[in-house]
Amino acid sequence: MTVKDILDAIQSKDATSADFAALPIPDSYRAITVHKDETEMFAGLQSRDKDPRKSIHLDEVPVPELGPGEALVAVMASSVNYNSVWTSIFEPLSTFGFLERYGRTNELAKRHDLPYHIIGSDLAGVVLRTGPGVNAWKPGDEVVAHCLSVELESSDGHNDTMLDPEQRIWGFETNFGGLAEIALVKSNQLMPKPGHLSWEEAAAPGLVNSTAYRQLVSRNGAGMKQGDNVLIWGASGGLGSYATQFALAGGANPICVVSSPQKAEICRSMGAESIIDRNAEGYRFWKDEHTQDPKEWKRFGKRIRELTGGEDIDIVFEHPGRETFGASVFVTRKGGTITTCASTSGYMHEYDNRYLWMSLKRIIGSHFANYREAWEANRLIAKGKIHPTLSKVYSLQDTGQAAYDVHRNLHQGKVGVLCLAPEEGLGVRDEEMRAQHIDAINRFRNV
Ligand SMILES: C/C=C/C(=O)SCCNC(=O)CCNC(=O)[C@H](O)C(C)(C)COP(=O)(O)OP(=O)(O)OC[C@H]1O[C@@H](n2cnc3c(N)ncnc32)[C@H](O)[C@@H]1OP(=O)(O)O
Ligand SMILES: NC(=O)C1=CN([C@@H]2O[C@H](COP(=O)(O)OP(=O)(O)OC[C@H]3O[C@@H](n4cnc5c(N)ncnc54)[C@H](OP(=O)(O)O)[C@@H]3O)[C@@H](O)[C@H]2O)C=CC1
């Protein structure tokens, strides 16, 4: 038995759940990995010179044992997230430390502590097997998976599953991720695959869409409302392309920051009217490595006021971090909110705290999404209210190049990866709905 037989079943129009349940699971499968014995390979290099193509491997790996509450999924497609870039350049720390720590928690978790890390935090595919205690899903179900892995044995996580002390991001802080032909997930990561999307389109939004939903829309994040001026950094990137859609769909006014005319054009085609090309306008928020330039914050704020008719920002959607955070705090209106989920350009932020306290602003930390938020975000995709922002699709063996593109900011929106799917465009079950949204679905393609 090989993965080829699994693919044949998925592609046959008439395979039943019983047929999938009867398919033997192969001994091994192909997966994208990083290797523990290579964690020092980039020592001494600048971040931008660390090349994911050198650290990312395609290996044949054994299928992990299936535990209670878990599912094995045949992965048709996945996508590249920035967390896989971090893993591949071993920054800010090696993810093998996460696997070791998880492995120490219990007997079953030891499976995750291996000399290789199978990465990837998105998937679209078909359930192959479920473990004891799983009733909501069965072999043959077409699914996407969100990346929240929790144990929920402590009371801490029961109001908001992100607060579980054993909260982990699947495929980053756990093993057996989605950039592979088979993945191991907890069954409560599974959600129905939107029928109007192909496998690679369905695999693209998951992580970033859920994160943007919590960070911007959810009451656990900024709780955006109609009419809010929302400053969105990297508005055509992974997170930003969903934040822009949420702002527009929710009646807010996105002020989109991008770095090229092409990216500005994508934002315009999504419906945004206020766009700042940070490259063309040449903002230099830092005079040198240690000193910011408040005059540049003011120039940036003035430009925002021109675009809003004199209003300041209600919510900043932050993720670049060190480079932009001082400006983000400055341009926020009195009582406004800066919500942050990352620090791509550096995690030691500096800002002028007088502008925060004197103007009663708030900084909110946000990370991925709880089960409910991830489900609600996926529901919006399934209803055609929010669309995938897939620009380019790579084969599994070219994942290193895909991660390189994201690391070097050469991409738009999301970059997809075909795992078992032999070509793009497969897996669409609702052609009628697809036809209604086809322009929006293809908006980011090949730009
Ligand atoms: C969905 C996608 C998401 C993304 O893409 S996010 C971007 C990618 N992710 C990242 O870049 C994050 C990577 N993660 C990290 O960098 C680290 O993960 C953290 C810095 C977040 C945490 O580091 P850690 O080593 O886990 O924790 P510690 O707090 O630095 O050290 C743990 C030790 O510190 C003690 N400690 C914790 N809090 C306190 C306290 N309040 N007072 C005193 N001690 C404390 C603990 O007990 C423990 O101690 P003991 O080492 O002895 O076991
Ligand atoms: N905590 C969480 O749950 C999550 C955290 N993240 C983190 O968020 C960050 C962004 O992820 P994602 O959106 O997928 O990545 P992308 O690379 O797809 O998009 C980020 C965009 O930010 C802009 N940007 C990058 N650097 C700077 C800078 N120095 N100054 C201003 N703008 C900048 C770029 O847009 P442009 O050049 O057009 O301005 C870029 O396209 C990563 O660090 C990732 O790890 C992501 C998802 C979830």
Automatic annotation (TrEMBL):
Protein name as catalogued: NADPH:quinone reductase
Keywords recorded for this protein, A-Z: NADP
Keyword NADP found: yes
Entries under InterPro entries matching the protein: ADH-like_C (IPR013149), ADH-like_N (IPR013154), Crot_CoA_red (IPR010085), ER (IPR020843), GroES-like_sf (IPR011032), NAD(P)-bd_dom_sf (IPR036291), Zinc-ADH_QOR/CCCR (IPR051603)
Domain Enoyl reductase (ER): 51-417
